[in-house]
Amino acid sequence: MVSPAPIPALPVPGSEVLTLTGSELLEWRRRLLAQGGAAADLDWLLDLGGGLRWSQLQSLWCHPQATIRLDRPLEALEALWRRHRRSHEPLQYLVGRCPWRDLELPVAPGVLIPRQETELLVDLALQLRRPAPPISRWADLGTGSGCLAIALARSLPTSRGFAVEASAEALAQAGANLTRWDLERRVTLLAGDWWQPLQPWWGQLDLVVSNPPYIPSATLAGLEPVVRDHEPHLALDGGPDGLTALRSIVAGALQALAPGGLLLLEHHHDQSGAVAALLRAAGLERPGVHADLEGRGRFASAWRPGAR
């Protein structure tokens, strides 16, 4: 993994506002795209880095004479774009934020960038638990940026949450993000691997979610450079068959979940059968497969036997 170079400090949005016409911005955009790169990525940078929403950008095609305001000068945005094109650094790291559900989560090198499909884990957790008794305690194993923990805490305001993470960098980012949303008193951060830091609460967890590393080690080299060279391999590498972390999580679920507790996992799109077999072998009930945004089996669920 390539260590990222320091990211130059950018003006805080709102501290320097640039006013220009739509035609000037569209010409700037055409010039950069003529040199390569995806239009969707550049438009994302204009949105998150410049404060120009996609709908505003689209309206400029019909009203190029309109005046617009950017949070950052075009020169600063162009420097970020060129750096992204040159080194494949994720735009989310360069801007320092990632849109996820209804949040704009701060992210930084050393922390996995939240994916859109992982948003479904929250919806599945809430859907599958209905009409079960209220959730008292839940946990997020391998919390990364804290995205799942934040979404669950906001959706389950009367519950107590635990967010487990082995990476010191990710743990610090998750802590800062929980504080940003004033959730640090409702979600306890725990350093360590999977179930071990939760031992005092084994047998009491009504819901556990996890988006663990699940990419087979041999396929990491074939990932896009924006992922392979910059995102933490600790959060990507799932071992020889991609199931190392999933095996550890499933193996401890029967002991850690409360009776009737739900385990919900994200996995690789071709691992549904293997994960379901692990869940059954561990003594969990009603293993289920759930589709991602493209209709592929991406999530697995199972329950500890018994009732609360």
Task: Kindly list the characteristics that best describe this protein.
308 residues; alpha/beta; Rossmann fold; 7-stranded mixed β-sheet; two-stranded antiparallel sheet; 11 strands; disordered N terminus; S-adenosyl-L-methionine
Describe the structure.
The structure is a single chain. The protein has 308 residues and is α/β, with parallel strands linked by helices. The protein folds into 2 domains: 18-93, no CATH class; 119-303, 3-Layer(aba) Sandwich (Rossmann fold). It contains 11 helices and 11 strands. The chain has helices at 22-34, 39-50, 54-60, 74-87, 91-95, 119-129, 147-155, 168-180, 225-228, 244-256, 272-281; strands at residues 18-21, 67-70, 97-100, 103-106, 137-141, 160-165, 187-191, 205-210, 257-266, 285-291, 297-303. The protein has a 7-stranded mixed sheet with strand order 7-6-5-8-9-11-10, with helices on both faces. A two-stranded antiparallel sheet has the order 1-2. A two-stranded antiparallel ribbon has the order 3-4. Strand 5, helix 7 and strand 6 (160-165) form a beta-alpha-beta unit. It is elongated, with a radius of gyration of 21 Å. Mean pLDDT is 91; it is low at 1-15.
Secondary-structure blueprint:
Blueprint: E1 18-21, H1 22-34, H2 39-50, H3 54-60, E2 67-70, H4 74-87, H5 91-95, E3 97-100, E4 103-106, H6 119-129, E5 137-141, H7 147-155, E6 160-165, H8 168-180, E7 187-191, E8 205-210, H9 225-228, H10 244-256, E9 257-266, H11 272-281, E10 285-291, E11 297-303
Parallel strand pairs: 5-6, 5-8, 6-7, 8-9
Antiparallel strand pairs: 1-2, 3-4, 9-11, 10-11
Helix pairs in contact: 6-7
InterPro entries: DNA_methylase_N6_adenine_CS, HemK-like, RF_glutamine_MTase_cyano, RF_methyltr_PrmC, SAM-dependent_MTases_sf, Small_mtfrase_dom
Binding site for substrate: 211-214
Catalytic activity: L-glutaminyl-[peptide chain release factor] + S-adenosyl-L-methionine = N(5)-methyl-L-glutaminyl-[peptide chain release factor] + S-adenosyl-L-homocysteine + H(+)
